[in-house]
Sequence to fold (318 residues):
Amino acid sequence: MLLLIGPALAERWPEALEAKLTQGRITSIRSLSSEVEDWDGSNDYHVLTLANGLKGVFRSEDEPWGSVAEAVAYLFDRRLGTELVPPTVLRTLTREELGEAWPWETDTRPGSLQLFVEGARPSEESDLVQPDRANSEILCFLLGRYDNHAANLLVAPDGHLLLVDFEGMLDIQQVRYGEFPFLRRGGWHEGGLSGEEPFPFDNPSKLVDPTLEEIRSTFGPWWGQFWPQGMNLLYKLLNGIPERTIPYVIWDGRLWVQVKVRSRHPAFTDFYPDITMRNLERLEDAEIRTFLREPLGEAHLQGIWERRRQLLEAWKKD
Fold:
């Protein structure tokens, strides 16, 4: 396998690609499942072919949540120089652009359009080489992308890693570097944090091999009023959870559940590319604010700033 180490960002993905993705005339739209073998994700992923020769993955929702995360992740990736997230822009499509091929009921559809990398495949552990491996751990921890698995960490034909699907960064989290995060359930992305008491990482309660009814009765008062089907999903994922045990905490008046599924390991590296870490060190609060878009708010900013602190502390100790 040919491995290309460390080209400058402008060499891999020229900035002009952003304008081409934003302004390019659409010539066709197809479901992502028709382009990617064994795709089992949402039906609202489509591949757009543009008249300028580019292809892009268009992600959309009734409310622009995950699509915002994709575009924001690209801004951070570009700022740090980690070169892992394909160019991604926010774009609103119109029925007029696609005519009879238009797949939605409304006349407009907001979403994100991400450069489609032909020939990319799910990664294996042997694909994860430096500096891409370290940069992926750093970027994922910084942004709170906790579901790092083969389908989200791809390998391009040139050997470079590609990070896609940053929806997890929408979850408000409490985490220590090298551990799985506790995710706030109920209220999801809404509201800030009081921070009046330290988070009890070392003393969580635990549900051991719970039934669905036990999950509902324990978590329902906090979780069920917002997304009751989430508890059903958690029950289905039990077989992938170590010892079928769910650690949880009631803190800041909310439920926090530790996630240990659909990820190879917690985000961590003992190798810190110097240029990445110096770019991270120069990343200030005001600049982070310019990157964030609704529904990413103050609590997400607090989380990114705290995870930045932990990364810089680990780097300086190294």
